[in-house]
Amino acid sequence: MTWFWYFLIYSFIGFLIEVCYVRVIGETKRDRKCRLFLPICPVYGLGALGLLLLPKEIQQTPWLLFPAAVVICTGVEWLTGLFYEKVFRVCFWDYSHLPLHLGRHACLRFALYWGVLALLIYYLLHPWVTWLVMHIPVWLAPPVAALLLVDTLLTAALLRRTRDTGVLRWYLCLARRRTA
User: Which uninterrupted H or E stretch holds 107?
Assistant: First the structure.
């Protein structure tokens, strides 16, 4: 279950990073989650798992970890973007307007961001995440896994039917009703 929790925690941290990033750059699409209910961005969870699978010699050497993270996380980002496009029929991100992009789903700028982020996560954050995961009660895994499964299935169905990531922002309608 350790890997399951790593995936969820890093997916949630990725969601927080995305929200902060769009606030800093002033982007209009301020919601960056990829599921209907859960505030997660699975590409971050998958990237983190890829990094955690690296040999310890690479993980513990910054000048090896950085390029490994660039390659692994950019590959994960590209494959995840392609998956969303082919299976869910939507595009959560499009880098085709940026220089040195690989299709629409990866580019040099964000590849370098992945490298820096990997160093920060591995050396600063991962010890805390490991401690947290070791203290999550065993009984919590089945209901959380069920919630993730249901959320993923509902998300997939909605995205495939509408082909619009805006359907994941259902709560904005509730906020508008309260202020009206």
Answer: strand 106-107
Please report, as a single letter, which amino acid is at residue 51.
Answer: L
What domain range includes position 97? Answer: 2-179
174: confidence class by pLDDT, cuts 50, 70, 90: low
pTM for the model: 0.90
Total structural domains in the chain? 1
- Running DSSP on this structure, what letter comes out for residue 38? S
pLDDT tens per residue, range 3-48: 999 999 999 999 999 888 888 887 766 556 788 889 999 999 999 9
Q: Which amino acid is at 42?
A: P
Please count the residues of the chain: 180
Residues 74-105: pLDDT tens digits? 999 999 999 999 998 998 888 999 888 888 89
Strand, coil or helix: 105: coil
The region that residue 35 occupies, defined by phi over 0 for left and psi between -120 and 50 for alpha, beta otherwise, is: beta
Name the burial class of residue 96, with classes exposed (0-12), middle (13-18) and buried (19+) by CB atoms within 10 angstroms of its CB.
Answer: exposed
Scanning the structure block, which residue is given the tokens 């993980």?
59
Distance CA 110, CA 74 (A): 8
Helix (H) or strand (E) holding 102: strand 101-102
